[in-house]
Amino acid sequence: MKHLHSGKVRDLYETEDGLLLMVASDRISAFDHVLAPGIPDKGAILTQLSLWWFEQLADVVPNHVVSTDVPAEFAGRAVLCRKLRMVPVECVARGYLTGSGLIDYRREGVVSGVSLPAGLTDGSRLPEAIFTPSTKAPIGQHDEPMTYAQVVEEVGADVAERLRRITLDVYVRGAEIARERGIILADTKIELGWDAEGELVLGDEVLTPDSSRFWPLEEWQPGRSQPSFDKQFVRDWLTSPESGWDKASDEPPPPLPDEIVERTRQRYVEAYERLTGRVFRG
Ligand code: ATP
Ligand code: MG
User: Fold this and answer.
1) Which HAMAP family match (predicted)?
2) Residue closest to 98 by CA, chosen among 222, 231, 230
């Protein structure tokens, strides 16, 4: 196999028959740093979750999954996929306002060119889900928001409309399923690409805590930052005096204590089990 690329969390290979092998590691990132140590089973949990969602979304959009029959060393945390020609747009849907969306809103009342009503705060639910695409930034740079007009310029009006429709459909379906299980899907990013037949296909990973914000429904309270389902303990510890780390410094963060690692693992397992109704066997 040919090694193609390693991101912060995943490694990509190409097989001899031209398929893509996406391997999820246990690496975890926060505040743009990859932390040490990893979270045991995270790669497997996110891979299984993504596969489960691909199935739930099968009638919304076709996907790139070919099989989970992968070399033993990657078992459970890798997927064989069709290689797509990726659309050069990060397709984001938001049902709630936070993060970069909130920053843009506070500055000009607009997120990716979409005007929002006044009076919204951190964690507010939006009147309806919105499509807030962004550029695919090269490694080490941040994605920039794109207006819908910029997407049209990039891919044409027909494709732009299809990207918007699919992204919102995936969000709405995902949010519905998550809510029944006590989880708010605040926002999510999907990636679409063209297959050999010229069809638009869902690629990458889908509706995982790495590509989405999941909040426990019972703790939702607009007006503050929401507890998140995955990295809350990690973020809290890193920003606490206990870690001795200054987020604004150039220093890499210190190693995570065992207890934070274990509680974070529990959180990922809980998200997986709540959403899928399955028991995670790691
Ligand atoms: P990071 O996520 O760490 O910010 P990254 O996005 O470069 O960096 P990964 O997410 O690990 O790293 O990389 C996955 C890459 O594979 C992305 O560029 C994504 O667009 C691409 N990709 C996903 N699915 C497919 C597919 N079916 N065919 C071709 N490329 C794909
Ligand atoms: Mg990525």
Assistant:
1) SAICAR_synth
2) 222
Pocket of ligand 1 (CB under 6 A): 5, 7-10, 12, 20, 64, 81-84, 86, 139, 191, 193, 203-204
For 183, other C-beta atoms within 10 Å of its C-beta total 22
What are the beta bridge partners of residue 213? 187
- Ligand 1, residue 139: give the atom nearest the CA: 7
Question: Among the atoms of ligand 1, which is closest to the Cα of residue 8?
Answer: 3
pLDDT in tens, the chain (282 residues): 999 999 999 999 999 999 999 999 999 999 989 999 999 999 999 999 999 999 999 999 999 999 999 999 999 999 999 999 999 999 999 999 999 999 999 999 999 999 999 999 999 999 999 999 999 987 677 889 999 999 999 999 999 999 999 999 999 999 999 999 999 999 999 999 999 999 999 999 999 999 999 999 999 999 999 999 889 899 999 999 999 999 999 899 999 999 999 999 999 999 999 999 999 987
Cα 245 to ligand 1 centre (Å): 30
Interface predicted TM-score (ipTM): 0.96
Exposure b/e, 118-134, CB count within 10 A at least 16 = b: eebebbbebeebbbbbb
- pTM of the predicted protein model: 0.96
Dihedral angle of Cα 32, 155, 163, 99, to the nearest 10 degrees = 30
